[in-house]
Amino acid sequence: MKNITIKDIARELNLSTSTVSRALRDSTEIGPETKKRVLELAHRLDYNPNPVALSLLSSQSNDIGVIVPEIANPFFAIVIAGIEDVAFAQGYHVVIYQSHEDYAREVLNVKHIYNRRKDGLLVSVATATTDYTHFKNIHERGFPIVFFDRICEEIDTHSVSVDDFEGGYKATEHLIKQGCERIAHVSGPDHLLISRRRLQGYRAALIEYGKPLLDELVVSSPYSATNALETVQSLLAMPKRPDGIFASSDNIAIGCHAAIIAAGLRMPDDIALVGFSDLPIAAMLNPPLSSVAQPAFEMGRSAAELLIKLIRNPGEHSTSISNMLKTKLMVRKSSMRISD
Questions:
Q1: 156 and 300, same domain (yes or no)
Q2: Which whole number is the average pLDDT over 23-28?
Q3: Are 62 and 93 in contact (CB under 8 A)?
Q4: Same structural domain for residues 78 and 168?
Q5: Nearest Cα to 269, choosing from 325, 337, 318, 186?
Q6: Which of 143, 160, 161, 157 is nearest to 311 (CA)?
Q7: Burial (Cβ within 10 Å: 0-12, 13-18, ≥19) of residue 297
Q8: Distance in angstroms between the alpha carbons of the first and the last residue of the chain
């Protein structure tokens, strides 16, 4: 089926292509009678303008690029739903890219988004990324970027995150109030800000309640259940093992959960466990996993709103905005020995 072009309309009406183009754009240079003829024929022939050509003319595509580590992660799926909720209402299409936690793939995604003239970028940084040059290069050229969840501190732009420190504090405080004395923390990768903030919250709660800070009880794992399962086995093999674990993510907590069961230990009697994110699967585990809930949908909405403001008013925001959303501790059987 042939795509109808401006040339086809111009040939049919014996007009120049520039006249037809102006008529379709409702230019005041074209008389009402000519406009009417052009629009009627365009409608009859089911003419649809080429979006790439339009973006070249207007310097806008009405497309927003979104890079997430993995769409299969329910947290990012919910964030994307929030992004789309705002973007669609504002006339933007959302194009999703996955880094799969890989630096090289993330770099290629950024280049593709920039070269394909997307209007802006929303991104949660890959675990493997420690060099942010690919983001800096396009940011310095004026390309709008907003970071969410895993943010880049080296670039002065808008960001949306949760209060990771508070979430880490609440999780650890809860374990203390359940009677835990040796509370371990399975942290995420050290170079990620979310990992460091959650670790700081854990430490602050221990200090506040007069509990010892023991380096041997803090271990690091990628945000992966498989890796965490292997990592936490070293904690469980200690002569004096922990009686509580705060995991930096639910994916890590799922690995901890499996390792605890495999070791023949009971939750929460032998070890109490708390995760972070409150993925849908958390409530379906046996026992159900306590977790720090993040407002993922609201994070997506907030990030999209900030990006669209940057796109439409590029010179208006001289000071970067950092939206920090609140968390909520969801207490379930994996940690609940007594009521707080």
A1: yes
A2: 78
A3: yes
A4: no
A5: 337
A6: 143
A7: middle
A8: 67
Structure confidence by residue, pLDDT tens digits, 304-332? 999 999 998 877 666 889 999 999 999 99
CB 164 within 8 A of CB 198: yes
Residue-wise pLDDT tens digits, 280-306: 999 999 999 999 999 999 999 999 999
pLDDT of 61 reads: 63
Q: Phi/psi of residue 267, each to 5°? A: -110, 135
The domain tally of the chain equals: 3
pLDDT digits (tens, 9 = 90+) for 65-121: 999 999 999 999 999 999 999 999 999 999 999 999 999 999 999 999 998 889 999
Count other Cβ atoms within 10 Å, centred on residue 153: 9
For residue 139, what is the domain's CATH number?
3.40.50.2300
**CB-based contacts of 145, cutoff 8 Å, min separation 6:** 120, 121, 122, 123, 135, 138, 139, 155, 157, 307
Structural Rg of the chain based on CA atoms: 26
Checking if the pLDDT of 55 tops 80, the result is no
Give the Cβ contact number of residue 325 at 10 Å.
Answer: 14
Mean of pLDDT values over 239-250: 96
Higher pLDDT, residue 3 or 157: 157
As beta bridge partners, residue 274 has: 246, 290
d(CA 179, CA 31): 81
H helices of the chain, in order, are 6-13, 17-24, 32-44, 51-58, 74-89, 103-115, 133-140, 164-177, 193-208, 225-236, 250-262, 296-312
On whether both 170 and 281 belong to a single domain, the answer is yes
**Residue that has been written with the tokens 């109490």 in this structure:** 272
pTM of the predicted model as reported, rounded to 2 decimal places: 0.80
Cα distance between residue 194 and residue 135, in whole Å: 19
